Amino acid sequence: MRFPDGFLWGGATAANQIEGGFDEGGKGVSIQDVMPSGVSRPPTEEPTPANLKQVGIDFFHRYAEDIALFAEMGFRVYRFSIAWSRIFPRGDEAEPNEEGLAFYDRVLDELERFGIEPLVTISHYETPLHLARTYDGWASREMIGFYETFSRALFERYGTRVKRWLTFNEINAVLHQPLLSGAIWTPKEQLPERVLYQAIHHELVASARVTRLAHELVEEVRVGCMVIAAPVYPLTPSPADALAVRQREHENLAFGDIHVQGRYPGYYIRMLREKGVELDVTEQDRQDLTHTVDFVSFSYYMSLCETAGPDREVGPGNLIGGVVNPTLPASEWGWQIDPVGLRLVIESFWERWGKPLFVVENGLGAKDSLVEVDGTRTVVDDYRIAYLNDHLYQVGEAVESGAEVLGYTMWGPIDLVSASTAQMSKRYGFIYVDRNDDGSGTLDRFRKKSFDWFREVIATNGASLTG
């Protein structure tokens, strides 16, 4: 199996999970700084030392070392996010923080040194805390202007250096995690549906406006949306289950449909009507939405089942729920493992939208053990190699079927703090970072067995994968 010439192999991270330096360089407080337990518990009032994200894996100081390791694997692209509160500490300032901008200049310098293309996520679950507390996050229409100001600062500073951008990370996650994804400070259980869907509308309008802005300011730019992708299977052959699947799929597909088609689809309008939700949509909003994306990117970790029946054993661990599939194995965190589902996602997205696709997150969170092999400290992570091989093989199958796939950035190429659980022990990387859930550890880096395996995959452009 060989992938297309120019296929972009690499890895993906988020600022709030790797950078640390939460109070350095003029950075303000973000929502992540008051979420020491991830999404499992309510936020704290102030940052607490128990929050592993205050240090992350210290990428803020070690970025050059880490990028050199990515280059050693042969990365052609690195997806990373820019912390909003590092550029606009409160989020509603008129002028950006120069120290924050300069930090990402240095990161881009290192990437250029090794010929690694940047793929930048503008907003990745790290909204300034001030915007959450003062405006209730994306529940407020004012957020559109703040986000546009932030994006303009990035385009004007980095537009000659960054040609691929993503507007929001996993934008459809706001349905299930309104604080994490939408910075909505109102507790989820108290949040009226009309407020949630209005917040979604504000994000969609902002995404479209910024897509237009990028096309105006940056030459040869490509802007993509980013969604959680999870194929849904009926739990039984019942037509009622098939209909339940369709309704569940529409929850996710709506976000891509709007980004690609520039309007609300009929099924979404019906859903809002049946919920009794009437959105505040201006004529300017409708015009803004017509500025569509150049490509569709997505995360893929698992598939789901759905049923109309009462037997709804919901799978643990994932952000968007879903019924347990009795035919599939699961990871240590209960995420069901389904490589074929990735092929199904790619082929269905390509047939539905006809836009280039980018797999920007896929990986296995597992408990790794650091051991010594032939005098070298490493992790023998054959389970991760098997997982990634099987998923990448299915990407190749989708390419063989005609889908245009731009690249694959594995999540996350170096161990980082989990977004959902705020743990270090849920490890994804090709690179082991010596840090533990209690905050102890040297932060030293060690290559895992999968490091050399992925280097070979890239060097052979996928020919080393096995079916």
UniProtKB/TrEMBL annotation:
Database matches in InterPro entries: GH, GH_1_N_CS, Glyco_hydro_1, Glyco_hydro_1_AS
Record flagged with keyword Ribosomal protein: no
Pfam families: Glyco_hydro_1 (PF00232)
Listed SUPFAM superfamilies: (Trans)glycosidases
Record carries keyword Transmembrane helix: no
UniProt keywords, alphabetically: Glycosidase, Hydrolase
MF GO annotations: hydrolase activity
Active site: E361 (nucleophile)
UniProt similarity note: Belongs to the glycosyl hydrolase 1 family.
UniProt name for this protein: Glycoside hydrolase family 1 protein
Gene source species: Frondihabitans cladoniiphilus
